[in-house]
Amino acid sequence: DGYVVAVVGATGAVGQTMLEILDERKFPIADLIPVASSRSAGSVITFRGREYTVRDLETFDPAGVDIALFSAGGGTSLKHAPRFAEAGCYVVDNSSAWRMHEDICLVVPEVNPHALEMARVNRIIANPNCSTIQMVAALKPLHDVMPIRRIVVSTYQAVSGAGGRAIEELAKQTGQLLNGQPADVNVFPARIAFNVIPQIDLFMDDGYTKEERKMMDETRKIMEADIAVTATTVRVPVFYGHSESVNVTFSGPMDAAQARDLLAQADGISVVDDPAGEDYPLASEAAGTDPVWVGRIRDDFSYPNTINLWVVADNVRKGAALNAVQIAEILIS
Ligand code: A2P
Q: What are the residue ranges spanned by the domains of the chain?
């Protein structure tokens, strides 16, 4: 008993985690359909002890599918998500293709679940950018009490956000360098092992990268507020877990102590903030977990009503697969 669920991009870094999370959370599945490109069509994946054959998206007929979780790139979603939606299926799309479309909702369940109403008509729901998800999850409980005026964010993003080949690239380059060999650079614009790259996605004419633009635009759409946001997004040699330094200015009184109390009670947030014990969120500890971890909560003494936060989450789980499955859970409830 349950739903017919397709995972498009089932062989990828996010798709694999979607399968794990559907299983962990006991999502009611009557039939599972793994879908990917012709490259992996015909291969077999195991889910809940049963084997399923991967289908080729190009020739797959979505008739009868209730929910499709897409994580196979923007071009793939642009082309195929409408086909699934027209067949009557709900599509939760992890790519950036539909996020800023005015008729498509962009949802973080802890922040704006009401936006899902829009999906009853067009059946496509956009899953936000990974760095944006964890930031808005941490800021919404504060914004509800005192509206946010401005956000200045710098990110420290794991390679897994760029997919399976990017994970392999960090591992391979690390080995090469430790063995005195030159590093092969294929996926990232520069060597990522033992390095920090201030470019994620492509540059636009205004000097920002698309990743930075996503954080600025998506935050305003999800929070449904006219917040000034500026972002610097950076790739670091970490496998799993995005970290963020977030400076937040409120429109009225808010301080670190109140923010800490509010976050300690918030859904989906875990506060780890003990300077005396040298305890704070770490990507190494957030990896494999569900919460958004917040620490280093402190007043910014340089400006009124302003605080600093350190926000960490597993980018493949809360930043992608978990958020998508949580959306699917709301759709069936
Ligand atoms: P495939 O394994 O057949 O290439 P990652 O983000 O880890 O790189 O994974 C990308 C996922 O998206 C993989 O499952 C990949 O399938 C899938 N994918 C990429 N391009 C397409 C496409 N054109 N059609 C269907 N699936 C695609």
A: 3-127+320-332, 132-314
